[in-house]
Amino acid sequence: FVQPGEMRPExxxxxxxxxxxxxxxxxxxxxxxxxxRRDGIYPTTIVGPPxxxxxxxxxxxxxIFLPVFKMNFPELVDMTLxxxxxxxxxxxxxIRKQYPYQAFKVMHGLWxxxxxxxxxxxxxVDEDCDVHNTSEVLFRLCANTDPERDSTxxxxxxxxxxxxxxxxxxxxxxxxxxxxKLPGENYHRPWPELLKMDDRVxxxxxxxxxxxx
Length: 213
What we know:
With 213 residues, this protein is α/β, with parallel strands linked by helices. It has helices at residues 53-72, 102-111, 134-144, 199-211; strands at 2-10, 24-29, 76-80, 90-95, 121-126, 151-157, 170-177. Helix 2 (102-111) links the parallel strand 4 (90-95) and strand 5. The longest helix is centred in the first third of the chain and has 20 residues, at 53-72.
């Protein structure tokens, strides 16, 4: 049982963020009995610097809820939370972009959906970018963005375990539009085409690689 108002210092604990949490007062949980079964199994996970077991549980959760996100955002193609972001710190999203500033619309929409409000960085890319390939996303981020034009910073609630904000539970979030720019997005030159190897040449190269082992 828990006695209202009874608090004791708890911690520090190694957490999924890869850091130790601070010592803080938490309610005291009193045990009156402990029972067990013969040959019982105690389900648990070990947390620490990612990726650990909890990352794969979180990744599965994203895949399960992806259809729900697509119902709210029809332009959404795919989404992932890379392990480096420990769930809430980093989100990669790909969209079918049809009109100016659509990427920012998606960012703000995601920040308004439950636990997604804790997403510290959201990077939006075009549908032809594989969000599960971090190297490819970073390439688009570096190539397709002007920092002043293509980023936005907002004030929002932050995760209680995030030690970076000045004040606990209150911080800033950044959204970055790494998509191709359309007319009306303050870009006044023709947008260049992404280099792509000719299919015939690609087939020859693949054949040579196969023959060389």
